[in-house]
Amino acid sequence: MAGEKCYVYLDGRAIGFVDDGKKFAEEIRKNRRLGVISGEINVAYRKRLNEVRINADRGRARKPYIVVENGASKFTEDLREKLKNKEIDFNYLLRRGVVEYLDAEEEENVVVALHEDGITRATTHIDIDPVILFGLTFNVSVYPEHNSVGRHAISANFIKQSQGLYSMNFNNRYDARAFLLYYPQTPIADSVAYRKLGIGKHPSGQNMVVAVSTYYGYNMKDALVINKSAIDRGLGRSAFFRTYSDEERRYPGGQQDHFRVPAATTEGYLGEHAYAKLSDDGIIEQETPVTEGDVLVGKVSPPRFLEEQTSFGVVEERNRDNSITLRAGEEGVIDNVMLTETTGATKLVKTRVRSVKIPEVGDKFASRHGQKGVVALIVNQEDMPFTKDGIIPDLLLNPHSLPGRMTFGHMIETIAGKAGALAGTHFDGTAFSEKGKERVDMYGALLEKYGYDKFGDEELYDGRTGKKFNAKIFTGVVYFNRLWHMVSLKLQVRSRGPVQILTHQPTEGKPRRGGLKFGEMERDALVGHGASLLLKDRMLEQSDKADIWICKQCGDVGYFDFVKNVPVCANDGGNDLEKVEISYAFKLLLDEVKSMHILPRIKLKSE
């Protein structure tokens, strides 16, 4: 409001007020650009609240912008040339007020143009490069400005989940779990960020020959069809590493764990066969094949209760088995073993298990444009479609996946990859490139030069029948990532196994040898089908069926006295009880209701 004082806040604390907040904020910016005050300071004037907020605290995310003054960029051609020739550096531009860092609050006070030709009277700054809008992961993608905005976040996630050469020193690392692609390749189409950050030194994908075609209905929706011979030649093949670690812990009372092969008298002994692969020191050796349940490190721990009294009155200390075993459903080879000490001077052992992961039905692949797919069929090379030159695609992608998701960047990469493979060169696919409009024409001209259709279409022949397809098929080279969602790590099967102590129902989750959860919606499906016997089998017989004694007089739960060989009611002491089959979870509910001082009664009637 007119005449009202404008409060000034420094790092959220009110330090005073000024008459004109906008003018005050501009004065601070002017002094910052002149170097009178620190370039670390940011100022924002909030017109609606009529307040000035000055931020000088640490931990703010800040972004560099080129300053615009009097309708012109301060980053002149002269400065550009000097920067190219390395006569000046970036810090020189910061000191001279040509470039400044803004935080989130000050960004609300500026008008930013993407390019110099977009400067208007209101413009205050220019982006250093339009791709600075995006993060690191997203900038690895190519032609992103041609894709639907919803695909951007998805593609960034897939790039993070891709298998590749994640680290050059992977042999010396003991990551909890790691994936290593056997034959990673650099993409034919890459971006400025990809090259500048040197990601090509540890790539995470492969260039695949992709035909956008159906295959007898096998690649409906997100499904992919893959060439079996390509897999045999190493397409998508990777190694999976999992590290198991343990230490000799110390306990109060001077006791501690010991790495060794447990004796047969040890509590919880797993049987002689489980420890067969261990060395004398209780630790498995390198390159030993292991399967589910094999012990990797033998360890004995003191009992949970310090000592036990024997029948002769002698105090005997017993040990319990606390060995590390290979997880359920996994197998592999011991890749490496490391022995070291912790900071507390206790012995620490780490064993890394290696297993080969060959692409199979159910494994997930994705392009850098968010075009994900799950392998639905692996086809012999002779049954795959082929071109007149005898080129057989590695992968068949459903045609509906491109227009439906509006990933036109994927289509541009297809012809760019094809042109690059023929010409033996890489192409730049950075977002908002100056050559953006001429890209497709350039790729098309290259394809025509090598005798191909300018739009990447080719005549394909059916591998099964040998007949030529009526339509031309869009074919090219696309960079695909193999993601770490693999069937072999998720497959879980159970016939019988452990149950939870509390509910007597089967455990849940693969590590606990659990079953798949049968929830309310699954129950509703069986109710809807009228499959009552199947419902009873799933939710009672195969779950937590319990035989409970119910008192006919008071309706309370009783028990069976095995000494007198008669059922007894705990409530009234009577012996007139009936045995009924109920879910143990229901009996648990009755007990929990009783704990709230409510006595539930079950009324029985004869069938």
Give me the secondary-structure topology:
Elements: E1 6-10, E2 13-18, H1 21-34, E3 42-46, E4 51-55, E5 62-69, E6 72-73, H2 77-84, H3 90-95, E7 99-103, E8 112-113, E9 125-127, H4 136-139, H5 149-161, E10 177-181, E11 189-190, H6 192-196, E12 206-212, E13 223-227, H7 228-232, E14 238-247, E15 258-259, E16 289-290, E17 295-297, E18 299-301, E19 308-309, E20 315-316, E21 320-321, E22 324-325, E23 332-341, E24 347-357, E25 364-367, E26 372-379, E27 386-387, E28 395-397, H8 401-405, H9 408-423, E29 427-428, H10 439-449, E30 457-458, E31 460-461, E32 473-482, H11 487-490, H12 520-529, H13 532-541, E33 545-551, E34 559-561, E35 566-568, E36 577-583, H14 584-594
Parallel strand pairs: 1-4, 8-9, 11-29, 12-28, 13-26
Antiparallel strand pairs: 1-2, 3-4, 5-6, 5-7, 5-9, 10-14, 12-32, 13-28, 14-24, 15-18, 16-23, 17-22, 18-21, 19-20, 23-24, 25-26, 25-32, 27-31, 30-32, 33-36, 34-35
Helix pairs in contact: 9-10
Kindly describe this structure.
It is built from 14 helices and 36 strands. It has 607 residues and is an alpha+beta fold. It folds into 5 domains: 6-132, Hypothetical Protein Ta0175, Chain: A, domain 2 (Alpha-Beta Complex), CATH 3.90.1070; 144-237 and 361-482, Dna-directed Rna Polymerase Ii 140kd Polypeptide, Chain: B, Domain 6, CATH 2.40.270; 239-357, OB fold (Dihydrolipoamide Acetyltransferase, E2P) (Beta Barrel), CATH 2.40.50; 492-541, DCoH-like, CATH 3.90.1800; 545-594, Alpha-Beta Complex (DCoH-like), CATH 3.90.1800. A hairpin with a 5-residue loop joins strand 23 (332-341) and strand 24. It is extended, with a radius of gyration of 35 Å. The mean pLDDT is 92.
